[in-house]
Design goal:
This protein has helices at 10-15, 20-23, and strands at residues 2-6, 26-31, 34-36, 42-43, 52-53. It is built from two helices and five strands, in the order βααββββ.
């Protein structure tokens, strides 16, 4: 398992208005070669659901 997190991504905010990644701190959870989504499903490629918003991140 691999867990990553990052602050708001300004490029994502510009390209994808309203995206989780562009709006604040998010985490990505990778198990094997798949990413966990907010809906509990696993995905092969990153998408909005695989950028899980963190409450109070970076504060």
């Amino acid at each position: 398992m691999e867990v990553k997190w990052h602050s708001a991504d300004l490029n994502a905010a510009t390209k994808f208005s309203g995206s989780n990644s562009g709006n604040g701190w998010t985490a990505q959870i990778k198990v094997g070669n798949k990413l966990l989504g907010l809906d509990g499903a696993f995905y092969r490629k990153p998408n909005n659901l695989t950028h899980i918003p963190l409450i109070g991140g970076g504060n």
